């Protein structure tokens, strides 16, 4: 349907031309576009640097982690590595299973060697926003169990100050019955605008992997004491977890447009 509309809009006559047009619009051709390439090189670097034989690895969620899983599967097969993967979402679980990797859980493997995950934004002080895809709670639990927490991201995720790059707000996972009081409390205490995240292919709000709602807090740009703000929000009854990952990551790899990888710190 979208394709037909596009074809009509462009006044072209074949669906094939429409496909080409659609791919050009999305900057995705038969080759990988610069954004996807940037994700891939960051993901490959993290897997190559941090995954060792006989290790337990946390597998994050999102689009960048897909590249990491592909590289991990490649290495496990070629080097015959023994690696147990702990998922941070249903998506991660499916990726692990679909790529024939060994699935574990925190009951059997409470101590991880490393967790690798994407990010929505990373500032100069390693304050991180996560949860753009709604997966923050299990991601934070898994990261907290890992000796090292490694972020993989493309060049659009790097900023000096939170909010410079990522415009969707800070995701906050909440118990459904409490979402309106929490919305008011955050707006009253800090300002900004707190919106409940609505589903796209379902009527009503997004329901997380844990059966909760997600609030997206569009915060005022003058806020900066993220450690304190995070702790205060976590104390609000009904808040399950925030998408603020404050100084949890040991390393962030950003794939850049020129094919290089920026490391932080
Ligand atoms: O909820 C989603 C996760 O926190 C992702 O890791 C984050 O949104 C980054 O995802 P992506 O790799 O697609 O940019």
UniProtKB/TrEMBL annotation:
User: Which Gene Ontology terms cover its molecular function?
Assistant: ribose-5-phosphate isomerase activity
The upper taxonomy is: Eukaryota, Metazoa, Ecdysozoa, Arthropoda, Hexapoda
Reaction catalysed by this enzyme: aldehydo-D-ribose 5-phosphate = D-ribulose 5-phosphate
Q: Which domain of life is it from?
A: Eukaryota
Pathway assignment? Carbohydrate degradation; pentose phosphate pathway; D-ribose 5-phosphate from D-ribulose 5-phosphate (non-oxidative stage): step 1/1
Q: What's in the keyword line of the UniProt record?
A: Isomerase
Q: Which GO terms describe its biological process?
A: D-ribose metabolic process; pentose-phosphate shunt, non-oxidative branch
Name the HAMAP family for this protein.
Rib_5P_isom_A (MF_00170)
**Keyword Transport in record:** no
InterPro entries according to UniProt: NagB/RpiA_transferase-like (IPR037171), Ribose5P_isomerase_typA_subgr (IPR020672), Ribose5P_isomerase_type_A (IPR004788)
The entry sums up its family as follows: Belongs to the ribose 5-phosphate isomerase family.
Name by which UniProt lists this protein: Ribose-5-phosphate isomerase
Is Plastid included in the keywords of this UniProt record?
no
EC number(s) from the headed UniProt entry: 5.3.1.6
One Gene Ontology cellular component annotation? cytoplasm
Database matches in CDD domains: RPI_A
């Amino acid at each position: 349907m979208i394709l037909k509309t596009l074809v009509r809009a462009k006044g072209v006559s074949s669906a094939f031309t429409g496909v080409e047009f659609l791919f050009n619009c999305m900057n995705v051709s038969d080759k990988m576009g610069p954004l996807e390439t940037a994700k891939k090189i960051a993901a490959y670097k993290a897997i190559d640097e941090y995954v060792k034989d006989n290790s337990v690895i946390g597998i994050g969620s999102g689009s960048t982690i897909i590249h990491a899983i592909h590289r991990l599967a490649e290495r496990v097969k070629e080097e015959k590595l023994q690696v147990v993967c702990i998922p941070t979402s249903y998506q991660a679980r499916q990726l692990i299973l679909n790529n024939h990797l060994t699935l574990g859980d925190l009951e059997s493997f409470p101590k991880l060697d490393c967790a690798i995950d994407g990010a929505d934004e990373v500032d100069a002080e390693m304050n991180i926003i996560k949860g753009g895809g709604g997966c923050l709670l299990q991601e934070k639990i898994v990261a907290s169990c890992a000796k090292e927490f490694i972020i993989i991201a493309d060049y659009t995720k790097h900023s000096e100050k939170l909010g410079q790059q990522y415009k969707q707000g800070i995701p906050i996972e909440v118990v459904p019955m409490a979402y309106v009081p929490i919305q008011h409390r955050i707006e009253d205490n800090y300002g900004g605008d707190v919106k409940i995240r609505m589903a796209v292919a379902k009527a009503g709000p997004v329901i997380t992997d844990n059966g909760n709602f997600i609030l997206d807090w569009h915060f005022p740009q003058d806020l900066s004491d993220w450690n304190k703000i995070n702790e205060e929000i976590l104390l609000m009854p009904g808040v399950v977890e925030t998408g603020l990952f404050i100084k949890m990551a040991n390393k962030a790899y950003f794939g850049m447009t020129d094919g290089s990888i920026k490391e932080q710190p």
